[in-house]
Structure formats: structure tokens, C-alpha cells
Amino acid sequence: MGLKKLVVELTSLCNLSCEYCFKELGGSHLDIALLKRILQEARTLGASKITFTGGEASLYPQLDEAFRAAESLGYRYALVTNGWHFPRILPLLDSTRRALNHIFFSLDSATETLHDRVRGTGSFQRIMNATDLCQTYGLPFSFLVVLNQKNSGEMEQLALLAAQRGGAGIRFGHLLPTSELQDLQLSLSAEERRAAEAEARRLNSTVDIEVSFSAAASNNVPGACCEAFAGQTVSIDCHGRISLCCQLADYRGAINNKDIVADLNTTDFAHGYVEFLGRALGQRTRRDKALAMGVALAEHPCDFCISTMEKTTWRKGLLSKNIKAHV
């Protein structure tokens, strides 16, 4: 299949502090010289797309250099943002539109009240203003929505809002909890997850935009259930390290870094990629075995990885119990 995309965490800095964000926020920035080297080396191995994330990517001090480096090497890039600083970075997005593939705005509700309750007063309107600017400048955008007990009943309203604002689509994903209490209060049950995934499929056939679900969707098929497992997407954290997945890197409250594959400060990307492929194969095999034993958690790929990588230590007992029950 081969390498296709990089997911690059430019910074751990963010201007917001959302209650269920799975990222451990801080003040680290990816070294720009290292980033340029990574982009060059990955390009020779076939990478042609980049998704820039954070923290909040718009707060990266060398954002201009990052975008222009991607453009000069022939990459197509996407940006994940909370939209707060969108007017400031708009000229940069416009001037690199030849390389710009997509903009993803993180949204929590179709209503201003609930969204702002999660992200802070004024954040909903800033996203709406940003979508107006995208429309004016002809920049493609979509919404990213983390589903939980507070907003899972809004899927249709959210999809309609994306369509009304001129978005190309909306992508839903399941909550990745960072504490046992949060898990109990906000996570959807297995049945609720399947219902939400079915609703996304229904909306995709009825709303005039693309409605999709992330790799977190229920999946009982063994093999490469995500781009990382397929070796197609490599994630780099803001410290310059390769992680098995962008959703594992800098996981809030985690006590270990089992997801870290290689440090690109001390090795080149080609060697790091080889290590990544080995780690991805090992985790894929681990999940396949769990599926064969009937371990329920294995049917939820992202939850399986955060559990087996010990990002959610309170779930470890449940995973072990399930495995023992099927041995």
C-alpha cells in the first residue's frame, strides 16, 4: 500500500481547554528545521498529503514556513483548527491555496449554547464567521464532531448546519475518554455507538454533503482497519517523534509512551518508518487475535488501541477479563 500521508502535530499549545480533549496541552512546538527535514524525507518515500494539527495549529509560530515548505515540496495539506484565530491565518491559507486540500473545524454542537459550554463563550460564532470567510474566499471546509452523551442526539442538525454553511462534509468520531468519570458520564454505549454510526450512514444518503465516520467506528473485520495499520499514514508529535497514531500521542493523563515508535531528532524518517511498520503490524496482529477470541473491545479499533497502549488504565482490567474469558 505504501506511505501516503503525514499527520503532524505542530504544537501542544491551545487557546482553549475543552473538557474532553484527549491531548495533554502544553507549550511545545515542533522544531521548524526538523519539520522541513521530515517533509523532505517522507516525500521521497511517497507521502503526498499532510494534516496539520495541534494543540491549536494556528498558534504555531512558524506556520507560514510550515505551509510554504509543504507547498514547495508538492504536498497537499489540510488543517484542523478550532477557528478562533481564523481571520489572522486566512491570508496565509489564501496565498498557499494551491497546496491547500481542506480545512476542518472542530464543532461540538449545532447550538451556540452547548458548543460554547464546551469551548468557551464566543467560540461558536467564531466558527460561523470562519465558514463565512471560507465561502467568500472559496476555501473547502468540513466539520469534525466528537460524539458523546451531550450531542449524539444532534447528528442531523449538525449535518444540516454543515450543508447550510457551505461545507463539503462532516465527520463524526467517538469520544476518547481521559478519565474513568468522564468515560462513565460521556461515552456512548456499544449500542448507542452502532446507532450513531447507522445514523451517519443514513444522513450520508439524504444530506447533500459527505457524512462520514472516523476509524473509531465499530468494526469486527480483522486486518488493516485504519490508515495507520495499513502503513499509509504516519503521525509525528510536536516533539519530533513518530507515534503509532495521532490519537495516542500526548494522550492526556497517560503514564507511558508505548505508542512512540522512533525519535526523528536522532534518526532519519526512512528508518523510523520501518520501525513504524513493524509496530503497526504488531498492533494489528494483536487486535486480530482479540477479535478471534471474541473480545468486545477489539470491535472498537481506537478504544482497543488506547486501552492496550495503557492510555486508559481503568479499562485495563476489563480488557484482561475479556481476554481471559475467551482463552
Structure description:
The C terminus is likely disordered. A hairpin with a 4-residue loop joins strand 8 and strand 9. The longest helix is centred in the C-terminal third of the chain and has 24 residues. This protein has a single domain, classed as TIM Barrel, CATH 3.20.20. It has eleven helices and ten strands. Strands 7-6-5-4-3-2-1-8-9-10 form a ten-stranded mixed beta sheet. The two termini are 33 Å apart. The radius of gyration is 19 Å and the shape is globular. Helix 1 runs parallel beside helix 2 and helix 3 packs parallel to helix 5. Helix content is 40%, strand content 16%. The protein has 327 residues and is an alpha/beta fold.
Quick description:
This protein has eleven helices and ten strands. It has 327 residues and is α/β, with parallel strands linked by helices.
Task: Present the secondary structure layout.
Elements: E1 5-9, H1 32-44, E2 49-53, H2 63-72, E3 76-81, H3 86-95, E4 100-106, H4 112-119, H5 123-137, E5 141-147, H6 155-164, E6 169-174, H7 180-186, H8 190-206, E7 210-213, E8 233-236, E9 241-243, E10 260-263, H9 269-292, H10 301-308, H11 316-325
Parallel strand pairs: 1-2, 1-8, 2-3, 3-4, 4-5, 5-6, 6-7
Antiparallel strand pairs: 8-9, 9-10
Helix pairs in contact: 1-2, 3-5
